[in-house]
Design a protein that fits this description.
By secondary structure, this protein is mainly alpha-helical. It contains 7 helices and 3 strands; from the N terminus they run ααβααββααα.
Length: 159
C-alpha cells in the first residue's frame, strides 16, 4: 500500500492542521483494523460490542449502546448480524419484555483471544516508532481532544 499522507494539508484545511491529522490518522487506523477484522469475519464496531460482552455477558442492548458510543441503528444492525452469525443471542428481559438482553454464544466467546490478539497486533503496529512516553502523551492528548469535541457537541446551539 502506498503512502498517501502528505506533509501539508490541503489549503482549505491549513487552519485545521490538527483536525486534518486526526482525520488522516483515524482513516488509516480504521482501514487497517477493518482488514484485520475481516480475517475474523467481523465488521468494524462488532469487536467493540463483543469486548463489552467479554467483560460482562448478558448486558442489555441499551447498555451496549451507551458503552460503545455508536448510534442506535448501527448497534441494532450489528447485533442482528452477529446473532445471524451465531455469535450472540438477544432475548427479552424477564423484568421487562421490551428490554433486550444480549448474551454471547460459545462461538462468540471463542473470539475473545483472537480479538485480543488482533487489538494487541494493531497496537504494536501503531506505536512501533514511538517511545513509551510518546504513547502516554499521545493517549492523554487524544483523550483531551475527544473530551473537548464531545463537550462542545453537548452544548446548546447558539441562537
Amino acid at each position: 500500500m502506498s503512502d498517501t499522507t502528505s506533509p501539508e494539508p490541503p489549503g482549505a484545511a491549513r487552519d485545521g492542521r490538527l483536525s486534518y491529522a486526526v482525520f488522516q490518522l483515524a482513516r488509516a487506523h480504521r482501514g487497517h483494523a477493518a482488514a484485520m477484522l475481516r480475517a475474523l469475519n467481523l465488521h468494524p464496531g462488532q469487536e467493540l460490542l463483543l469486548m463489552q460482552l467479554f467483560d460482562r455477558d448478558g448486558r442489555t442492548q441499551a447498555e451496549l449502546l451507551e458503552l460503545v458510543g455508536l448510534d442506535h441503528s448501527t448497534v441494532s444492525k450489528s447485533l442482528r448480524r452477529m446473532q445471524e452469525a451465531g455469535l450472540l443471542t438477544r432475548e427479552p428481559a424477564a423484568h421487562d419484555r421490551r428490554v433486550m438482553v444480549v448474551s454471547l454464544t460459545d462461538a462468540g466467546r471463542a473470539l475473545r483471544e483472537p480479538i485480543a490478539d488482533m487489538w494487541r497486533t494493531l497496537e504494536q503496529i501503531s506505536v512501533r516508532d514511538l517511545t513509551p512516553d510518546q504513547v502516554e502523551m499521545f493517549t492523554a492528548c487524544a483523550r483531551t481532544i475527544e473530551k473537548s469535541v464531545r463537550d462542545h457537541g453537548r452544548q446548546a446551539p447558539a441562537e
